[in-house]
Records
---
Amino acid sequence: MSCQDNQTGYGMDAHVEQLLNLSAQTETLIAVYDGDDRLQYANSAFRSAYFIEPDETPLWPDLMRRNFELGRGTVLRTDDFEAWLRSTQSRRGKIGYRAFETDLCDGRWLWMTEAVQQNGWMLCIASDITRLRAQGRTVRQDRDQAIKASYTDELTGVANRRFVMARVDDMLAAARTGGSGCLAVFDIDKFKQINDRFGHHAGDLVLRDFAHRIHQNVRRNDCFGRVGGEEFLLVMPSTSPEDALAMVERMLTVIRFSRPLADSPDFSYTCSAGIAASLPSDSASELYRRADQALYDAKMSGRDRVRAA
C-alpha cells in the first residue's frame, strides 16, 4: 500500500470516528438497523429514549414488544401488539424513504425519518418536536392513522392491494434500469370448501393464520399483501427466480404444519403459488398475468406446490 493510500485510509477512519463522536453528543436520535432489522448502531439519545443497554443489539420487533409490555418507549394505541406489529412491518422498510410523527410514553413528540438502502439497511433519525408542533397534533395523528388504514387489509393486517401493487411498480421501475426481482402469487387451496364445511368465521381465521405465518418469513425489502379473497402477493426485489423459488417452497412448508382452528385441532390446509421474474419490458399487469398463469399450473398439477413461469 502506498503512502497516499495510508493517508486516505487514515483520513477515512478519522472522519468516521469524528462522525460517531458527533452523533454521540447530539440530542437527535440516530440508529442503524441491518437487513434483518437488528440494531447495529444507536447513539446515546436513541438508546435512552428506547431503553437499550450500551452493548445491546436487539431486533426491532423484540425491542418494540418489550417496551410495549413495560409501558415505555413508543406509545402504541392497540390492545393487540402482534396485530399492530404485523401491520407495521407490512410497510416498514418497503420504500426508500418515509417520515412520520410518533410520540413517546414520557410525553415527547418525535419527527422520525427512515431511509432504506437496497440491501435492507435502514438509517433512522428522530428530532424532538414537542414544543414546535404541539398545536394540531391530534389532527395530524388522525391523518397518519387514516393513511395507515388506506394501505392495510382490514381482515389480516398485512398490506392491501393498493400498497403491494405500488411496490410491484417500484420493482418494475428498477428492472428498467438493470434491476431484477420476482413476483409470487399465493392462493389457499380449496378455500371455498373450508368456508362451506367450517363456516366463514373459520375461513377468516385461516386467512389471518396464513397472512401471519407467511409474513413472519418475509424479508425487510420484500412486500407481502392480500389482493382479494384468498389471494396474496409477495414482491421480491433484487431476487433471482432460483432464490424466490426456494423462499416460497419454505413458506409452503410452514403452512402445511399450521393448525389454525382450535375447535378442529386436526384441521390443516395448504396453498399453491406461482412465480414470475420481472422483465425490463413488463407492465404490472403482464408480470401479474405470468405469475398467475404459473399459479394455475401449480393448481392443475396437484396443488400444495409452487411453479415458476
Note: Strands lie at 29-33, 39-42, 97-103, 109-116, 122-128, 181-188, 223-228, 231-237, 271-277, 306-308.
---
Amino acid sequence: MTTVQLQLELWQQLEQAQAQPQATDWHQLCLAFDEAIDKTPVGLRLATAADVIEQMAELLAARAIAWAEDWYRLPGDGPVLDDDLFTEFVRQSLSLDLSDLVGVPELYVRSVSEKSHEEAESVVEYREKAEVLAELETFVYQSAEDEIEALEYDEDIAAWAEAVRVAKAAGA
C-alpha cells in the first residue's frame, strides 16, 4: 500500500504545483517522482513516468509563460537583477597552464660516416654538376636518335605507294 500512498503524494504535489507554478519546490517534486517510480511495479513504471514527466513539462511551460508576462509588464528596460545572481555562472578571468603539454624537442645530430668512400659498398658516387648534366644530355640525345631510327623502319613506304596507286586507278 505504500506505493499507492507515494503515488498519491506525488499526484497531490503535482496538483498543488499546477495551482501555483511559481511557488513549486522542484527539488521536492523530483524526489517524490523518484520515490514513486522506485515503488511502482515494473510493468507500470514507464506509463507512470511518462505521465509525470508530461505534467512536469506543462508546469515548466506555465512557469515560463508567467515569467514572460511579468517581464513584459515591467516598466523601463526590464527587471533589475542582483549583482550576485549570476556570479556562479560568470568567469572573469582564466589562467591555463600548458607547460605540461609543451616540451623541448630533442635535438637530433647527424653523425658523419666514419667509413671512407672506397670502403663503403654504396653505388653512390660524388660527381660534379656539369659532368652529370653532360652525361644526361648525351643519354637523352642518344635515346631520341634511337627512337627516330626505330620509327623509320616501322613504315612500309612501298606498301603505301602501292595502295595509293591502286586507289587512283580504281577511282579514274
Note: The chain has two domains: 2-79, 129-171.
---
Amino acid sequence: MQNQGFIIALEGLPYLLIGILISLLLAYFHFTFLTVMVAILTIFVAFFFRNPSRTIPQQEGLILSPADGRICMIIDTYEGKFLKEKRKRVSIFMSPFNCHINRAPVSAKVIDTHYNPGKFHLASVDKASELNEQNALLLEDSHRQNRFVVVQIAGWLCRRIVSDVKVGSTLLRGQRFGLIQFGSRVDIYLPNHIALKVKLGDQVKGGETILGEFL
C-alpha cells in the first residue's frame, strides 16, 4: 500500500516562500552571488522538507521504523515515562540529509503524550534520551494487546518538534504523525517479545523498513 502525501511537507512552505522571495529580490538588484547562495539554501530546505510516499508492508505482526536514518543505539533500558518497566530501545539518528517525517510503527491509538522542553545536546548521544527537548507518545496497537513508546527528540541544530496527533488519535501503520526540523532522533521502546530485524549502523526508512516482528 502506498502512503501518499504532499511532495513537500506543509511545515516547509513558509521557509520555501521566504527563500524564493529573497532570491527574486536579490536577483532584481543584481546581487548574483547572494542570489545563488540563497537559491541553493532554498533548494536544501525543499530537500529537507520532502514528504515522499512509502510502500507500507502489510503483513501481520510487523513493527516499522518510525523515522528515516541510522540505527545509532540498541539497548535494554528502563522506560520511565509511561510503562515503568524494562524495554528494548531502538534509537534512530536523523541527519539534516534524511527525510524528517515521522511515521507510526504500528496501527495504534494514542493513549498518552508527554512533552519535555529540555536541552539541545547532540541527538546521537545517549544523554539526549533524557535531557533533550522531546515529545513522547504512548501507543496501543489496534488489538489492544501491546503498547509502544515513540519519542521525538530534538538535536543541537533542531529547535522545533512537530506532532500532528493528540490523546485519542488513531494512526494506521506507516501514517505520518509529525516531524522534527533540522537534525534529530527518534527512540522507540519495543515490547520484550519482539524479534529485531535491524542491527546497529543499519540505514532505515520510516514506514517502510521492518524493525521487528512479534514472536
Note: The longest helix spans residues 32-48.
